[in-house]
């Protein structure tokens, strides 16, 4: 039975929308080849499930990586299919000996509100895998298939039971094949015949559990000398293959695309090197119980390490240093998010970002003074801090004269002249006053300007570097305050950024702090977003800095009053109309500045991005 | 003769191209200043067009033209006479009549004016 499907629209080369024309029932599938890192972005659970499939090292002392788990999967070429109902499938190719006459895929399917399912699919071919030239060639070479549902891929010994799936491929065919239809839909704009992608079923099968009792891929042994190139599964191909090998209708079963041999196999040096890589990783794994504990509890870690080395030049001496540094430090840094109310998934992402950071900067960090290393690593307590430290290190690499102390203790904006303008702001000495939570929903009591207008520090004030942060610092110094260190715990409250919007947890903390500070005549520097993008600030949102000097309420709502150094004119910078209103619905604090010349061409109203706590000047 | 003409044309175009990031013209204008402030111009673009390091593009001087439009011109911090400006102009900038010495950078149809000096 052949169904004619037509493409309605294609938004990108990787996105194909199909429609079953005869049933006028639309079906869409998107499919593309992805790598391991892209997989994490698409589906984090799939990322973790596939990491379990990638057996880098045996966590059991008695097992070695290449005897217990006698296969390896290719994480650089994953076949991804997404259906209209958001069901997703991922096909992983098991590395193969080049002369084998079969190809195996592990397939992981994700359906809404269901546990992920895994299958082992074997394609028996009429020629060797290294003789396959392209997808068409692969499809034509398939003699039969075998499907085994993997009951529990975490178990060393896996049992199989019933499961259904449909394997197939997409083929481009004439949109109006077999008839003389001359309607416009049959032609492209250039007059050529229109084509569509049709999903053709190779095998639609339900495994009834009659297959092998253990999940043991056929090929892909590291020592492939014993692997026969014939069909070693032939004695039990009756794992219920069925369906049609011709083009056919897709059903409610999930669909999978084969992931076939494309030039890399077990004999390739890159693949062979993985054994060496895995041995190195195993050494790290066994180096301490602390490291072992972290690895055993972080499912993706070893697979990602293997992938990272494979895609970053192999086991070079510099990668070995980075890896050793990363593994030695993860037991500490992985737990440094404790002051943040992260959800389990945020914690997992925090750990992943930390690990990536250590891999990328491990070698550079290892060359620093040990005390500086500790200072840098202790700073990494949140996503924002990872961004900040990452940006700082990149800046330090580009500017060898810049030091961690100077940047960490002094600056927010990493502009090129920052390090020249130190104010000896030392870490510590933070305002530790305890203040009560503030309910922002009530009408705000008026707090008049805590700095006199005559003390306004505007743009161009002589003796100060022409930079909004420097003017803001000079402004709060008029009341005897200095800015707290950006990296010190709880001293910077990021309440909004362009990427994620309002952070309600920090907003609540920030509003309470502002109420306390202004009530005690403490002016506070805040970051401002006034244009898309940023000039180099770590939060990727802040464009400008102003000083909050008062708060109150009027007919437009509750507001903070600010001094704006964007102008050198006092009447503009200290205007009583420089107000930023708190929106209780969105949580945004935004408004207009009366520095008319400057705001004339900014993209939007000022929005507070971050609250920088003040501390007394010594 | 044709060859000479061709060479002149080539030299002319090469010369124009080489001038892309150089000052095409120096100009002076007399204005009544209104204020000084943080620049809101695209520093990356102007740095690319003029060759001035963007860290030296921080500040605008503002004045009103004859049509009462506010005009902001960027200062080249690297060469601007700030000492003179701070002592003679900054504290009574509003309505101050000054002469601005400008470097004019031209790139195709665009013209960028940068303040080099003030008197």
UniProtKB/TrEMBL annotation, chain A:
Polar residues biased stretches: 425-437
Region (Disordered): 418-437
Full protein name: Uncharacterized protein
Organism: Flavobacterium fryxellicola
TrEMBL record, chain B:
First and last residue of the signal peptide: 1-18
Origin superkingdom: Bacteria
Signal in keyword set: yes
The entry's keywords: Signal
Protein name: Lipoprotein SmpA/OmlA domain-containing protein
